[in-house]
Each structure stands twice: as structure tokens, then as C-alpha cells.
Design goal:
The chain has 262 residues and is low in regular secondary structure. 0% of the residues lie in helices and 0% in strands. The radius of gyration is 21 Å and the shape is elongated.
Length: 262
């Protein structure tokens, strides 16, 4: 079907339409229905897509720099390798985290530098290998998200909720703030000097993680796994360590809670 047979306007229905390679920059497509649309290698710079429905849409290697996708629906949407520099995805969400095809929302390899995900709710989302430098994910809910090999330097993660997340190989600044880390996997990361003060990290995995001189105070680390971690001079004052595993960890100079017994 030809593009011009379709209404490129707010609320337009473009479901299943092949828009690959098309230049849709600066258009107002608020509330557009883009279910299973093909937008691969499309150009959508500054396009207004508030409340748009991208369920199972294909946006691989598309350019959405400074586009606005606030409150959009992203079930099963594939943004692999796309450029979303400065894009606004605040309050983006999913009705079904795995979508109709069983695929999660996928940003693998995308450039998301300086993008915004404030208050987004994207369970099982894939950020593997993403450039998230300077991105804002504050107050976002990313249960089960994968950040493997992602670059999070300079990102803002205040009050982020990432239980069950996988951050293996990610690049992380020690000045970043963290929220809920229940079941999160931070194995093998260099987090020397980081502050994880306050909040919860029950069952979190820090296998072979470098936490030298880290501020780990006032946090619930119940059943966390610190096996073979470098905890030299780390401070656990006032933290809960019930059932925590320190097998093979470097505990030189560690400050433990006063009531803790190994």
C-alpha cells in the first residue's frame, strides 16, 4: 500500500504499513496507531509521537533523534541499532511486557545518549550494548531489564527500580544513585568507591564485583551474593546482611554492622 493512502495525522492508523526508509521528521503523529508497522531505517527526527502505539513495530536502525514518545506503548517494539539521541520516552509503558510475539521491547545497540525515560515502566526491556551516556532513567521501573555491556556513564538513575536486572559488563559511574536492586545482577563490575547507601538489594548478585571502599550503609542486602567480590575497606554500617554470601571475598578492612555475625 502506498504511503499516501494513509493519513499521517494525529490519531492516524498506520498499522502494518511499510514506512521503512521514509522521512517523517517534524510530523505530528500523536496517538498514531503503528502496530506492526515497518519503520526500519526511517527518519523521525523531532517527530511528535505522544501516546502512539508501537506494539510489535520494527524500528531497527531508524533515526528518532529528539523525537517525543511520551506515554507511548512499546510492547514488543524493536529499536535495535536505532538512534534516539535526546528522545523523550517519559512514561513509556507496556500492556504486556513480552508482547503478542513473546518478544520484549528491544533497544539493543541503540544510541540513547541524553534520552529521557522518567517514570517509564518497561519490564524485561533490553538495553544490551546501548549508549546511555547522560540519559535520565529516574523513577523508571525496569524489572528484569538487561543492561549487558551498556554504557551508563553520566546517566541519572535516581529512584530507579531495577529488580532482576542484569548489568554485567556495563560501564557505570561511581557517583550514580540507585534505588531498588532486588535480584539485580551486578557481577564483575568495577564499582570501587560507589555509594549504594540506602534502599534494598535483597538477593542481588555481586559475584567478583569490585566494591573496594564502597559506601554500602543502611541497605538491605539480605541473601545477597558477594562471592569472590573485592570488598576491601567497604562500609556496611547499619545494613542488613541476613543470609549474605561472602565466600572467597576480600574482607580486608570491611566495616560490618555492629550486630552482624559471620
Amino acid at each position: 500500500m502506498n504511503l499516501f493512502d494513509h493519513d499521517l495525522r494525529p490519531g492516524g492508523d498506520l498499522s502494518g504499513v511499510d514506512l521503512s526508509g521514509r522521512d517523517l521528521s517534524d510530523l505530528d503523529l500523536e496517538r498514531a496507531r503503528l502496530v506492526e508497522a515497518n519503520l526500519q531505517q526511517g527518519i523521525l527526527r523531532r517527530t511528535r509521537l505522544h501516546y502512539a502505539d508501537f506494539t510489535n513495530a520494527k524500528l531497527g536502525h531508524a533515526i528518532l533523534d529528539n523525537a517525543v514518545l511520551k506515554s507511548s506503548r512499546l510492547d514488543g517494539a524493536d529499536f535495535t541499532g536505532a538512534s534516539l539521541i535526546g528522545a523523550r520516552m517519559d512514561s513509556a509503558s507496556q500492556f504486556d511486557p513480552l508482547g503478542a510475539t513473546g518478544d520484549s521491547t528491544n533497544f539493543s545497540g541503540a544510541n540513547l545518549s541524553k534520552s529521557f525515560f522518567n517514570y517509564a515502566r518497561l519490564s524485561s526491556v533490553r538495553f544490551d550494548g546501548c549508549d546511555l551516556r547522560g540519559a535520565t532513567l529516574s523513577n523508571g521501573h525496569f524489572d528484569g531489564a538487561s543492561f549487558v555491556d551498556a554504557d551508563l556513564r553520566g546517566a541519572f538513575l535516581g529512584s530507579i527500580f531495577i529488580p532482576h536486572a542484569d548489568l554485567r559488563g556495563a560501564k557505570i559511574d561511581t557517583r550514580m544513585t540507585w534505588g531498588n536492586l532486588d535480584w539485580a545482577n551486578l557481577s564483575g563490575l568495577n564499582l570501587a568507591g560507589i555509594s549504594l547507601r540506602g534502599g534494598i538489594a535483597r538477593h542481588a548478585v555481586f559475584f567478583r564485583t569490585n566494591l573496594e571502599s564502597a559506601n554500602l550503609t543502611k541497605k538491605n542486602f539480605s541473601f545477597a551474593n558477594f562471592a569472590f567480590a573485592n570488598l576491601r575497606n567497604a562500609d556496611f554500617s547499619d545494613s542488613i546482611l541476613t543470609g549474605a554470601n561472602f565466600h572467597g571475598a576480600n574482607l580486608e578492612g570491611v566495616v560490618f554492622p555492629e550486630d552482624w555475625e559471620s
